[in-house]
Amino acid sequence: MRRSIMLSAAISTALGVSALAATTPAQGATTPQPPGIAASGDFQHPGILNVRTFSDIPVTGITAHFFPLRSPEGTPEAGSTDDFSVIWNPGGKTTDWQTAVHLPEHGEYRMTFDVTDASGATFTGLTRPYTVLHYQTAMRIPDFSVTPTAPDYSHQRVTVSGTLLAEPPGEPEASVPVAGEEVDIETGHAVIVATTGPDGRFTADFVPTARDADVYARHGFNADAGDAVNLASSSVRVTTVQWPTRVSVNTHTLNLAQGATGTVTGLAEIQTPEGWQPLPGSLLAYTNGPSGTGLSGAYTDGHGRYTLKVPSTGAALAGRVVLAGDDELFATMSSQPLTVHVAFKTVLNANLTLDDRSRLHVTGSLNLKDSRAHWPAKPAVVLDYSKNGKTGWKAVATLPVTVRHNKAGVAETFGQTRTAPSDGYWRVRFQGNPDLAPAVTKTVHLRRLATRVVGFNATPEPVRKGDHIWLNGTVQVRSGTGWKPLRDWGVSLYFKPRGAKSYRYLYQMGLDDKGRFANWERATQDGTWAAVLDGTTAQTYLVSNTVSDYVDVR
Questions:
Q1: Which of 17, 13, 113 is nearest to 61 (CA)?
Q2: What share of the chain is helix, strand, coil (3-state, %, to 5)?
Q3: Are 530 and 488 in contact (CB under 8 A)?
Q4: What burial class does residue 59 get, using C-beta atoms within 10 Å of its C-beta: 0-12 exposed, 13-18 middle, 19+ buried?
Q5: Which end of the chain is more exposed for a tag (fewer CB within 10 A), N or C?
Q6: What is the rounded CA–CA span in Å between residue 402 and residue 280?
Q7: How many whole angstroms separate alpha carbon 397 and alpha carbon 416?
Q8: Is residue 541 part of a domain?
């Protein structure tokens, strides 16, 4: 019984192209010319052979002979058939034929053809180079289905199913289900694997990873080089549906010091058929610059809210907070503008000391480290004072910064000397501006204790010239609200002769454990004796009062 299967459009076209290259009888020839011939195995149905002939004289019969593909010449044929049916003949020189081949073994075969025309002439051994018959079992999935083909945010999972059939070569109607076999399902950017059941059926599901994908399936075992060919199912186009989104931000401008990190919070939502709903688990990013490079990112929580850390990377940058919309598979991208204004880092150094006369000496420098920073017109720093170093800070002076170099990276200096409390906490502060970050030095505690000389006396007076004068007194140091002896320290002794304008330093006198000092001096002339704690204050004491006593020498 003859079988006839319609050529697919692709195979028919391929044969048509081959026909153009086929040999046709020469015009006016007196000897019979062999007909042109083209052949093609049906890849979708291995074992089905399609042949096209070209002849001025109608072709009445074809016999095909089959040989193993790589067998040498002279090898006996594996089989033959003349059971061809005409499947297309428009009445011209071209005729399309088809047959179902039956051979004893699966494999790949080369072919030769014997062609008989209406004149009774038979032409044998006609061949077409590179024409191969695939005589193999076809593993097919004829009923492949995909649903939904337009998944959306609420219905993201796509289900695929089908039946794996084994089709013997040349017998499309004898296909049987195949159980326990793996099926590879191409989902666009990934392959998932399903296993067929007893009836050859399989099912699987996946969430798309691309907006558009051609989804198809095929037998998972690659036996193309053996006795089976794995045929892909029909391809189904899956295109995700995007729903609109929106994102809010708690601010559109951040002012940050260089190196600092800011925070933006907000809500991401998606518009569903029921209205706007929170969008959980979605990625947001802060981007800036022409390239839109992402500098930071965060995911929304279960209520669609997010907290995004924003770095300071340079000067004022116009960026955006972008809701990526799950790579825009099921949601559109939305964004909000966010400008990050960065104040460049400043480096402030200061040295503060308090001398023994309660004078505060302040020296220091201010530096702009970043080359993009610029000095303001009249830079200055502020000197702050507090009694306890924690509260009650007061700005007591503004110190101008002398700009000599006027470029970033080079420190500019400031300084001042002023009368100050003997006990207090100090710091220097640069207030900054929108372009320069503020800076403050460490707090320093500067303290000196008040001292005094009491009971100073020079006796006797008057005194005879050449006799000795007894000099004595006591040095005390402030203790809380009272005074106590200053022990194991020293006091300076001075003398100013009558008529002189200044004192002359003599020497240091030591103090006993009660703060007392005493010594004898020979009386040589009229004058004033004085004692003061001044040369040995170190970093602890203030200069004491100066006490004196005039002695008349006769």
A1: 113
A2: 5, 55, 45
A3: no
A4: buried
A5: N
A6: 55
A7: 9
A8: yes
Q: Same domain for 16 and 109?
A: yes
State residue 243 phi and psi, 5-degree precision: -100, 145
Largest CA distance in the chain: 175
Mean pLDDT, the chain, integer: 88
Neighbours of 446 (CB within 10 A): 19
Measured between alpha carbons, how far is 427 from 393 in angstroms, rounded to an integer?
Answer: 9
| Distance (Å, whole) CA 135 – CA 169 | 6
Measured between alpha carbons, how far is 443 from 427 in angstroms, rounded to an integer?
5
- Which residue's structure tokens are 């150094």? 349
DSSP letter assigned to residue 200: S
In sequence order, what are the residues at sequence separation of 6 or more whose Cβ sits closer than 8 angstroms to the Cβ of residue 8? 42, 44
Pair (212, 160) in one structural domain: yes
DSSP 503-542: -EEEEEEE--TTSEEEEEEE--S-EEEEEE--TT-TTTB-
Inside any domain, residue 235: yes
* Count of the separate structural domains present in the chain: 5
Eight-state DSSP code of residue 6 = P
Distance CA 351, CA 399 (A): 13
Domain match, 339 and 289 both:
yes
My answer on whether 143 and 106 are in the same domain is no
Q: Write down which residue in 119, 135, 151 finishes a domain.
A: 135
Work out the percent of the chain whose per-residue pLDDT is above 90: 72
Which of 96-110, 131-145, 200-214, 218-232 is the least confident region? 218-232
Look up the domain containing 507 and give its range: 451-551
Residues in the chain: 554
The amino acid sitting at 359 is R
- Residue 313: what residue type? T
Measured distance CA(77)–CA(110) in Å, rounded: 10
Q: What CATH number is given to the structural domain containing 304? A: 2.60.40.10
Quick count: other Cβ atoms within 10 Å of Cβ 419? 8
Q: Which amino acid is at 462?
A: P
Tell me the per-residue pLDDT of 336-361, one tens digit each, with 9 for 90 and over: 999 888 899 999 999 999 999 999 99
Domain-embedded: residue 2: no
The CATH number assigned to the domain holding 491 equals 2.60.40.730
Judge whether 507 and 485 are in contact, CB under 8 Å. no
3-state secondary structure 419-443: ECCCEEEEEEEECCECCECCEECCC
- Whether residue 244 lies inside any domain: the answer is no
